Input
Amino acid sequence: MNLSYRIYYVFLRNLVSYKRFVIPTFLVSLIEPLFYLITFGIGMGAYIGYFGGKPYLYFLVPGVLVSSVMLSSTFECLYGTFVKIVHEKLYDSLIATPISAEDAVAGDIAWGTFRGMVSGILMMTVAIIMGVIPGSILSVLLLILLMVFIGILFASLAMIVTSFSPNFDFFNYYTELVIMPMLFFSGVFFPLDRFPAWMKTLSIFMPLTHAVNISRAIFSGEYKPGLILNFSVIFVLEAVAFYIGIKSMKKRLIK
Amino acid sequence: MNIIVSAKDLTKKFGSLTAVDGISFEIQEGECFGFLGPNGAGKTSTIKMIHCVSPVTSGTLIVNGMPAHIGNRALKMMAGVIPQEIALDPDLTVHENLIIFAKFFDIPKREAKKRIAELLEFIELEQKRNSKIDSLSTGMKRRLLIARALLNHPKLIVADEPTTGLDPQARHLIWQRLRQLKSQGVTLILTTQYMEEAQQLCDRIVIMHKAKILKEGVPSKLVEEEIGREVVEIRIPKEEDDKVIGQLSSFSCGHERVGDTLYFYCQDEQHLMRKLIELNLHNYLTRPATLEDVFLKLTGRSLIE
Output
């Protein structure tokens, strides 16, 4: 792993180019999770009413927060990175400078993570405006840290997919067969307790399930010992995905 | 003269395909060294190994006293690369492109700004400082690629077909700038398919074909040694070849039939011309021999696909 401080330069390049797209991307990052909050939260919430002593939105928001991080980080490192490699040939220019292939990929993972974090923060702001407020200021800070933590995971996973993707269409397999099921089977919208056993087992293997558990605990400020397991699962998966993501992208970039 | 690049039995394989097959060459500091060859000859693969973006499969490659390999940041720091494809950052303006690139080389901001102002003047693009890349012509984009390659005051410039797709004006401007850099003592490594470009810029060239070096030398000498001074092209039906060759071969140093044309190579066309007039042949053309003749003679005049 030939990593250096130049990761920051790659991140910086993305930040400079981003200023042209800030408004459209902010809107997109907001709209999708906002739909979930409005349709599920307010629409369905009206029928569900209270959930463990609190309005349904309090159950929903922590899950939607991490989902929006997942979606943003994933899409940035699928489509965003692919365009930079194949269409703009940006990576070729980067690696001809003292930036190594590993720096370039890690810089893009950092960027995907940042995009995820921004989406998450926007979502949290909307939730707060809607009156769904985290337990304390500490919860807010911890939630932002969590966004970074799971942003790295999903950005790295997406990087692995991008490393062997021949074209844009290929990404559909990943988004439709992995990301979407994850969104619906990770207990974002309803508790997993009443799911059949096989579905519960399945959900254990979905990293988002663990992220949702942590998010919900931080949001309410009610921590349980099981969180250590949730945290460990994400941490291990993230370290592996980061490593494989960089290695496999390097294979694509350096021939 | 110091040797800045030295390759011995340099080989590059992509799976079962051998792109560069055990070539050896030396490039001296301060010269312009050209790699000529048809598409797929191995030129780009060779220079990618020199500027450390492609690993060497086998053989040795020493650049500026260090072995070239993809992790060698020190070598990348002293080299400037003008890529074949227009790989500018389309999301940024001309100035932002350069500012960001200067950052990649750890150039402090103040120094970078000064350097960029100089370079924009050098490539005559001051007016386009704040333009988006999309609004530039191909010639402007290629010039900007040159400016970008010069940000770090490179000791070695690697240019991969730097004038592809340009009109004559833009091409001549780029040639002038590259010669100007050479006069400042920069070593220039060039790949090209344009013979004129090689003749205009290169002190020495190698002609590559099918992953190997066929010939190495000074362009003008190569032409003289391989072809002669003059070329006479005669467009006659193939059936008449034997007769015409019989009549003319004593005046030339070689002949070749390609398609509808019979080529004669000679040191002094005067006698040959006189004979041609005597024979009352009409469809002929006489011209000075060029590097293109050498190139075509060595790599074959038929299409390479």
Observations:
- The mean pLDDT of chain B is 89.
- The domain at 228-288 of chain B is CATH 3.30.70 (Alpha-Beta Plaits).
- The longest strand of chain B covers residues 3-14.
